[in-house]
Design goal:
- By secondary structure, the chain is of the alpha+beta class.
- It has a domain of 71 residues: Rossmann fold.
- It is 45% helix and 16% strand.
- The strands form two sheets. The protein has a two-stranded antiparallel ribbon.
- A hairpin with a 2-residue loop joins strand 1 and strand 2.
- The radius of gyration is 16 Å and the shape is globular.
């Protein structure tokens, strides 16, 4: 799919490949379906070049200490991987200016994050000059 340019964006992250299939997004947008993509900062920057009119939301931890605590509790990373994840998070937080909105995601408050995202979607649909997003 990479060679055939079938991804809107793709990247190798922590040794794994991730990508957003272009046809899926194009199909949803052409039907007028609200489309939410979960990508990292690198993916958001790539998509912003292709779809600058899209709305970008950054989900942020309350602090790097809280993020470290969350990651340690999961026990899914070695200490080296944990250090890399935290360094990457600090670097990504410097990219906030490319995002339209920032939502702080607190532990055990997923409903709050979802509610804020819903509010952003509603607000964007009520814009006097709505964004038209097409591939």
């Amino acid at each position: 799919m990479i060679d055939k340019r079938q991804f809107l964006e793709w990247a190798s992250v922590y040794g794994n490949y991730y990508g957003v299939p272009k046809d899926d997004v194009s199909s949803a947008l052409s039907r007028g379906v609200d489309t939410i993509l979960k990508v990292d900062v690198q993916g958001a920057a790539a998509i912003k070049k292709i779809l600058p009119q899209a709305v970008f939301i950054f989900l942020m931890p309350p602090s790097t200490q809280a993020l470290e605590k969350r990651l340690k509790r999961r026990r899914s990373e070695s200490s080296n991987d944990l250090a890399l994840r935290l360094a990457t998070a600090r670097k990504e937080m410097k990219s906030l200016p490319i995002f339209d909105y920032v939502i702080t995601s607190h532990q055990n408050k997923l409903d709050e994050v979802v509610s804020k995202i819903d509010s952003i979607v509603v607000a964007e649909k009520c814009r006097n000059k709505p964004h038209s997003v097409e591939l």
